[in-house]
Amino acid sequence: MGRLIAIAGGIGSGKSVVSSIIRILGYKVYDCDSEAKRLMNTNTAIQGELVENFGPQSVLNDGTINKKYISSVVFGNEDALNKLNSIVHPRVKDDIVNQAKCVMQSIMFVETAILLQSNLFDIIDDVWVVEAPENVRINRVMKRNAMCEEDVIKRIKAQDGQDYNTLKSVKTIVNDGVAPLFPQVEKLVKEILK
Fold this sequence. Notes:
By secondary structure, this protein is of the alpha/beta class. Helices cover 52% and strands 13% of the residues.
């Protein structure tokens, strides 16, 4: 297995834009959000635990997860969110390791908004934190997800508590809409490859 680099940062920070640049540079990026959704929609063990913990309405008739229902249960309810995370995160972690074993390159990237909460840090070699001012993040998410400001702030607060200073090898990427991103990402990739 090659080197695993986390692209971390809260909602609206611009992790996906950084991931797009990395893909353009020819590297694999494992997007924890979309892969977790894929696993929730295809893994019957996960679905069984969701039904057991949150009720039969957790899974729709077509066999996919009822995202709207699950979201309504976990957002604002720390115990329910922790339970959901304890069901999904270990499977995501296993999936990352399995996919990393199949990557032919020496590095693979992992995009995540909740690196510490998901306990991925013990398989990660380096962390690239994407940062943006909170007002920029709020505006990006409101525009992208058609959400009201209050809901965006709730999501930001749900991801709070990420102290990356406790981790090894942390680099910062500034995505404030002013500093050019591509040169920052390219420089970090070159440093890793040295």
